[in-house]
Amino acid sequence: MSEPSLATGASGENALPVIDPVQNYEKIRRIGEGTYGTVYKARDRRTGEVVALKQLRMERERDGMPVTSMRELRVLQTCRHPSIVELKKVVTGSKLDSVFLVFEYCSHDLGRLVDTIPRKFSESEVKCLLLQILEAVDFMHARWIMHRDLKLSNLLLTKDSRLKICDFGLARYFRAHEEAYTPRVVTLWYRAPEILLGLETYTEAVDMWSVGCIMAELLRCEPLFPAKTEMQLLQMITALIGAPNERIWPGYSSLPLTSKMTLPDQPYNLLERELPHLSAEGTDLLNRFLTYDPDKRITARQALRHPYFRQNPFPRPRADMPQFPSAHDAELHSNQAHRRAQMEEQEADTRKKRRAQQDVDSRFGDVFGGDGGGAFGAAEPAVRAVRHRH
Ligand SMILES: Nc1ncnc2c1ncn2[C@@H]1O[C@H](COP(=O)(O)OP(=O)(O)OP(=O)(O)O)[C@@H](O)[C@H]1O
User: Fold this and answer.
1) Is 155 a domain residue?
2) How far is the CA of 30 from the centre of ligand 1 (A)?
3) What CATH code is carried by the domain that includes residue 70?
4) Is 371 part of a structural domain of the chain?
5) How much distance in Å is there from the Cα of 113 to the middle of ligand 1?
6) Which of 121, 147, 217, 316 lies 20 to 30 Å from 181, alpha-carbon distance?
7) Please, is 162 exposed, middle or buried when counting C-beta atoms within 10 Å of its C-beta (0-12, 13-18, 19+)?
8) Of residues 20, 109, 115, 149, which has the active-site annotation?
């Protein structure tokens, strides 16, 4: 196995030191379990610094590091931003048979936080969080990276209310409408309609739909579309914002799965009724995130300039955000927490099966090629020109 070279950038520029053994870290406890690994809170024995250690799953360690983990590494090397979780190091187990990513530690993930806080976020708090999400998403999209798994539990919060996007296990570079990507991305509740309807040439607009679901979830403190199946999700979306049609979404009727789905004949947009306390500007922004046609959906750059953020109540400054007890320590008993855990578990199961297949496929194909085989080629430019849609 050759882990050290795997973590090194193609040009050597962003090389991460991988010589550190994991014995230098004392595990405090497990804080997360996902598709791609187990996450621990840990302490650096030499400096006392508290970090998050993500142990990568190495089911087939004889074959080296799985391409799905390499994706996460490559994109994290490119994405240095205050609202994106910082990858500090890559460390190895004693026999070089396991690999750990060392991240800065964040005391909450927003999924657990909304399931445990005793009150809803105020609108100015939501604005503070939403602006940080949009800045990070704009940063990624300007570098032609789509995250493809934005959801509350992938949004971390530090003690000083800095929001950090994490989990780049599904992220990849994109080219506008040029390539077909895997259709099974984004956790169900946050999945855009074009993915549900089988469009494989989707774009970074899928992230913007997820941001809309996140905005509504932060305001309501409950998920907007807590569906159990794709069909149920499409029905929930239709019930809330009306059924799609060729007029509002040109090309809708020729999407691969449109003819296979029977959607309710519901012509009304009921967002205003669902969020009666949201201002007209807030409802407008949410509608622009939850726009069926991905080409008309608002971009992160446009959303950052939306009047909603310049209107009373103004975004709360980070320094004035309330302190919450760490959501990682909280006991999760509510129905909502249970539903979220069930959904995440179901999603993780599907992804584990898919990941095993991807890792097998990649060994028979081009490791840096299509979506199944790993996303980040050595020749991939770190930064490309800002897209025309911005
Ligand atoms: N830097 C961190 N600080 C604190 N907690 C973290 C950190 N990174 C991850 N976590 C916790 O671990 C959980 C899982 O992490 P992550 O999403 O990176 O793993 P994953 O295996 O890729 O998960 P998924 O199945 O969602 O793809 C997060 O939801 C969060 O609760």
Assistant:
1) yes
2) 11
3) 3.30.200.20
4) no
5) 14
6) 217
7) middle
8) 149
- Rounded Cα–Cα distance for residues 67 and 58 (Å): 11
Range of the domain at 31: 20-104
- The reply to whether 5 falls in a domain is no
Q: For residue 327, give the ligand 1 atom closest to its CA.
A: 31
In terms of DSSP bridges, do strands 155-157 and 145-146 run parallel, antiparallel, or are they unpaired?
Answer: unpaired
Give the residue carrying structure tokens 């991905």.
294
Which of 116, 52, 55 is CA-nearest to residue 85? 52
Q: With respect to residue 381, please indicate whether it lies within any of the assigned structural domains.
A: no
- Say whether 375 sits in a helix, a strand or coil: coil
Q: Is 149 a catalytic residue?
A: yes
Task: Give rounded-to-5 percent helix, strand, coil for the chain.
Answer: 40, 15, 50
Q: Output the residue whose Cα is nearest ligand 1's atom 14.
A: 32
ipTM for the complex shown:
0.95
For the chain of 390 residues, list the mean pLDDT of each consecutive stretch of 10: 36 54 92 83 96 82 67 88 95 79 94 88 97 98 95 95 94 76 86 95 96 97 95 96 96 95 91 95 98 98 98 96 78 72 77 60 38 34 34
Over the range 331-361, which residues count as b (16 or more CB within 10 Å of their CB) and which as e? eeeeebbebbeebbeebbeebeebbeebbeb
